[in-house]
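User: Predict the complex with zinc ion.
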Amino acid sequence: MKSEHPGINPAVPPSGNGCVECLTSNGWWLHLRRCAQCGHIGCCDSSPSQHATKHFHGTGHPIAASFEPGETWFWNYETGETIEGPKLAPPRWHPADQAVPGPAEKVPRDWESRLH
Ligand SMILES: [Zn+2]
Ligand SMILES: [Zn+2]
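Assistant: Here is the predicted structure with zinc ion placed in the model:
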């Protein structure tokens, strides 16, 4: 079947509940983004490490979806536009009771002053 959404594979589940790179480097994030092509979970541009954008630059995967509970928007890095997208494989978002910012035990007291 030909995808009507280039850069989006609705069958791929998310890589986990947290930013892949932050979890392996003791980092923390504000909000999470989900690569719509491979399911990579990365942190947003307000987070210290901006791994979602780095994932786009590293892989060329052009579309990210919000991984924040209740948010259904998609972001196209190539055009700089918010777009509509299809239903993605569950879980659509990180658990609603997961700390924001997170992970809870890794967030510094002065986190607000460390945002981008
Ligand atoms: Zn990260
Ligand atoms: Zn990807």
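The mean pLDDT is 96.
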